[in-house]
Amino acid sequence: MLNNDGKINVDVMQDASEIVRYDETGIPLYIQTGELSRYPDRKALCHWHDDLEFIKIIDGEMNYYINGKNLVLKEHDGIMVNTRQMHYGSSIDQKDCSFLCILVHPALFSSNKLIFRKYLLPILEDRETEYVYLDSGCPGHAFILDSLTDMTELKRQGEYGYELEIIGLFYRVWKNLARQFQAGNPAAPGSEDMDTKVQKDMVSFIYQHYTERLTLSSIAASGGVCRSKCCQIFKKYLCQSPIDFLNSYRLEVSSHLLKKTDKSITQIATECGFNHLSYYSELFTRHYGCTPRQFRGQFRGQLPGRLPADS
């Protein structure tokens, strides 16, 4: 989500599910435009949520990872990600990419139980349909992509009752997807296998225990696999080693603490699981292109009270 300093952060719970902050309380709908350059390291955290996710690429291209599959979303194309899929987006060769992101919770369509059971549940509950790649060259997909643009514009204009128009567009979008599904044309086979479950367990374990002294063995044990298998799964699903993923998450948490608290850098490093300040500073500088002290200096005016001496 977009924060006050213009950066976008994906807030996750300890089970790796995203905390989705909808545009308006009580209406499970989130619409935002963004650029990968506004994410830390131009990459979102690996996460999942109960919402359907729609992405449309406005300019550039994006690497998109879903349950270990690596897709390239091309300019003007997009994707619909089914519920509860492990996913994240990242830049290609550190190049920027602008995009639309729309999240909608299935509960928005559950008022009529017959319609929900007949048209939504068959896709929501089909684990073979992890995602649908939306190709702008396909007329049916082009309609969906154009509708995403229309929804974003309706939100921008903010006229009274715009949510009703957006919901109406979503019904038309879903009719298009349901028709493809009924015709036996889901875009992406691949049910959740054991490796996917193990990956979720290990990522969740890191999110819950990142403050502790974690080793490759402890991460592997959380998924019930050997260290070699653990490394294979992280490379397949996240293109990182388990320890690199752990350190990336620790650095992400530490960057929030540097910006939002007056805790000393030493205290932040320790609370985020780094035993040596020099190692923390080295990794932070490599990750963010500046030292923790320099990073904090950019946000000094936002911090409450006086900063400690080693800040």
- The spatial strand order of the largest sheet comes to 1-7-2-5-8
State the secondary-structure class. alpha+beta
Spans of 5+ residues with little confidence (pLDDT < 50)?
1-9, 186-192, 302-311
Number of E strands: 8
Q: What is the H/E string?
A: EEEEEEEHEHHHHHHHHH
- Helical fraction equals 40-55%
Through-space gap between termini: 27 Å
Mean pLDDT over all positions: 84
Give the percentage of residues in beta strands. 5-15%
Largest sheet: 5 strands, antiparallel
Which outline best applies? globular
Note the total helix count: 10
Radius of gyration: 21 Å
What does this structure look like?
The chain has 311 residues and is an alpha+beta fold. The chain is 42% helix and 14% strand. It has helices spanning 113-124, 139-157, 162-182, 194-209, 216-223, 227-238, 242-260, 265-271, 277-288, 292-297, and strands at residues 29-35, 52-59, 62-66, 69-73, 78-81, 87-90, 98-104, 131-134. A 5-stranded antiparallel beta sheet has the order 1-7-2-5-8, with helices on one face. β3 (62-66) and β4 (69-73) form a beta hairpin. The longest helix is centred in the middle third of the chain and has 21 residues, at 162-182. The protein is globular. The model is unreliable at 1-9, 186-192 and 302-311 (pLDDT under 50).
List keywords for this structure.
3-stranded antiparallel β-sheet; 311 residues; disordered C terminus; alpha+beta; single chain; 5-stranded antiparallel β-sheet; globular; 8 strands; 10 helices
